[in-house]
Amino acid sequence: MPARHLLALIVCLCCALGQSAGRAFAEDPVLVNITGPLAAKLGERISFEVELVNRSGRTLEKLRVVDYFDKGFHHEASASPIEQKGTIDLAAGTARRITLDFLTDEPGRQCHRVEILDQAHRYMGGATECVLVSAPVAPPTATAAPQAALPPSVVQPPMAVPPAAYAGPPPVAVPPAPVVIPPVAPAPAFPLNPAPVPSPQPMVATAVAPPAVPSLALGMSGPNELTVGGVGEFVATVRNTGLAPSGPTKLEFNWDDSYAPLEASDGYKLGPSSVSWSLPSIEAGGQLRRQINLRSQAPSGLRGGQSTRACVRGVLSEQAGGVMVADESCVLIKSNAPPKRTPREAGLRVSVADCDDPVQTGGATTLVCTVSNGGVSPSGRLDVVVILPEQGRLVGDPTPSRVRIEGPNVTFDPLASLPPGGHAVFELTYRLPVGGVGKATAIVSGPEIEGSMESSCATTFLAP
Fold first, then answer.
1. What percent of the chain has pLDDT over 70?
2. Is residue 428 a contact partner of residue 410, using CB atoms and an 8 Å limit?
3. Mean pLDDT of all residues in the chain?
4. Which CATH superfamily is domain 343-461 in?
5. Fewest C-beta in 10 Å: which of 44, 65, 165, 440?
6. Do residues 427 and 385 make contact, with C-beta atoms less than 8 angstroms apart?
7. Model confidence pLDDT, tens digit, residues 210-245
8. Are 90 and 63 in contact (CB under 8 A)?
9. pLDDT at 206 > cutoff 60
């Protein structure tokens, strides 16, 4: 392949990879950067700085920060995972920094992952950081004891050296001279019980245990299912699984509009859609409980026969290091009201007619609105509203006469119910001061009806 063709192919591949990487990089609305040590010693406390950057181009509200970490990491607040106290709001293009502290409990490669979630538990971004944890190195141990020194009274004889060979002429015979043997002094005796020489003991490396710290865990419990109007008991159990007493902490319950508070454990402080307690110190291995009773209520938009999921969230905060622990109990809330019917399913109809069309100059016309029930069951309460043209003026009293007038809207007193085959008539008279076409609209709705019914009538008014 020619060099210029190879260079062009490489440039194309780099561009494609760059575009692909750019798309993958832009998938997460929140960029997470973690800064911390790459190596640590066993039993050492280490810190990580987490930077959150909003690159979504819009404001992100109530973000949750959750940290999952290996068992070789130890956190004073709780076992993995932990959730940071409160939520975070990030304007477009802004950043926020938080700090995470851990103790190293096991050697090896230990990792933790930070994930950002919104209130709907959707993943908004995350990152992972790892640290190589090594054990302390023990000093070398003695392998052999030195030899014991001999007593100073013992003198070792010198080694015998063999005589060198004689290479000269043969020796001349000489008469032997008398041999005189000098007296030999007695050799000194070795001591019978020499003092023992102590052997050096091997050195043993001992690991330093991490300091005893408290570790709080939170568990939430509650019912699995409630009907609208039912009462649920929600209990938070706080346990100290560490080796030291905990300090004072704060426990808070939060809920949405699906609940109304009734009663709670002593010492509570009630807020909007929340309740909190100031907890005392908990001994190592101890626990305490707090409870609240909530009445379920129908959320906005929940129709008869439908159900929704509502949660009560517990948050344990004001611990050492500013870390919080959270848990939640979720309940299926069912509506005990009968399912709503559409006007067509209920057999309901509405019609509007004018008595005069066209209307002479300065005259008025009477509108007749008829609501009928062609179904097989009562309609339930019905609300009837007639909307006049913008410049329409009401003349006389409507029938029925009990109405509420708000601008062009004429609202009649609610109709208690229409039996099967029944009908109801509503009348009113209006005029248009200037000529033109006036359009009046009747709207019928009810709490047991899904949606509403409408009918309109256009009337021509002759100009003066």
1. 77
2. yes
3. 80
4. ntegrin, alpha v. Chain A, domain 4 (2.60.40.1530)
5. 165
6. no
7. 667 888 999 999 999 998 889 999 999 999 988 889
8. yes
9. no
80 is written with which tokens? 């993995």
β-strand partners of 412:
403
Task: Name the percent of the chain in helix, strand, coil, to the closest 5.
Answer: 5, 45, 50
pLDDT at residue number 183: 54
Residue of 335 and 439 predicted with greater confidence: 439
Q: 22-134: which CATH topology?
A: Immunoglobulin-like (2.60.40)
Helix residue ranges per DSSP H, 333-459: 343-346
pTM above 0.85, yes or no: no
Per-residue tokens: 72: 């070789």
Instruction: Report the relative pairing of strands 45-54 and 73-74 from DSSP bridges.
Output: unpaired
Which token pair is 88? 């975070």
Partners of 60 in the beta sheet?
90
Phi, psi angles (nearest 5°) of residue 344: -70, -45
DSSP assignment string, 47-112: EEEEEEEE-SSS-EEEEEEEEEE-TTEE-SS-SSPEEESS-EEE-TT-EEEEEEEEEE-SSEEEEE
22-134 and 216-334 share one fold: yes
CA distance linking residue 274 with residue 269, whole number of Å: 9
Say how many C-beta atoms besides its own lie within 10 A of residue 359's C-beta.
Answer: 20
Nearest Cα to Cα of residue 412 among 430, 385, 437:
385
Q: What does the pLDDT look like over 42-91, one tens digit per residue?
A: 888 888 899 999 998 889 999 999 989 888 888 877 788 888 888 899 88
Superfamily of domain 216-334: ntegrin, alpha v. Chain A, domain 4 (2.60.40.1530)
Given the DSSP bridges, would you call strands 231-240 and 287-296 parallel, antiparallel or unpaired? antiparallel
Do 302 and 269 meet the contact criterion of CB atoms below 8 Å apart?
no
Position 193 scores a pLDDT of: 53
Map out the domains of the chain as residue ranges.
Answer: 22-134, 216-334, 343-461
